[in-house]
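Obj: model holo form, ligand = S-adenosylmethionine.
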Amino acid sequence: MDSHPSPLRDEPLGWTFFRQWLKSPLSIAAISPSSRQLARQMVAELPVDARRVIELGGGTGVITQALLDHGIAADQLLVLELNPELHDHLRRRFPQVAVACADACDLPEVARRAGLLADGPADAVVSGLGMLSMPRATQRRILQAAFDVLRPDGRFIQFTYGPAGPVAGEVVADLGLVARRGNLAWWNIPPATVYVYTRRTDRSPA
Ligand SMILES: C[S@@+](CC[C@H](N)C(=O)[O-])C[C@H]1O[C@@H](n2cnc3c(N)ncnc32)[C@H](O)[C@@H]1O
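Output (holo structure tokens):
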């Protein structure tokens, strides 16, 4: 017997996503899931030796699938999703992956509880969160939480639909980070650009 009946199980992913957007547009922050092109471009920004990866805001799992396709082992991947119905959907779609129904702001505690950091810090945090629509204080808490679990040269990879970087410049500067613009996914609706954030070092460009 299935103990988690879900109305989301058999419906198309785009509809699953759209229904959640209707209920909670600010938190979902997009009317359709990311395209596979965008998911591949996000994953292409992983460090070449990336093993331990955390995804924030898994949604219906487009980026989760791209991470697995890229070769990230299911037991080295942790996905956080705040929306209970999307969390339930992700757990069914990826039974071999740890998926937490949790707020990205609580990442260090969630990752420790999941045992992901037992052998060392994470190599990358890949975020599908609607960062642009978040207040600066929330952006700061999420970036701080991510860099608390990342290795010194770890990467925070984020996409945006906007013309500029998704994290406020003031937050980037205060946390001692640098931003690099990656590829533009033309075929995404709407087109989206990938950004990569790392800790500033002496060799970082001004
Ligand atoms: C723009 S959607 C992206 C979904 C998916 N990654 C994709 O690219 O199609 C943002 C997702 O982040 C989730 N989310 C929003 N705020 C969150 C938070 N504070 N912590 C964890 N997940 C959150 C939403 O429920 C939604 O599934």
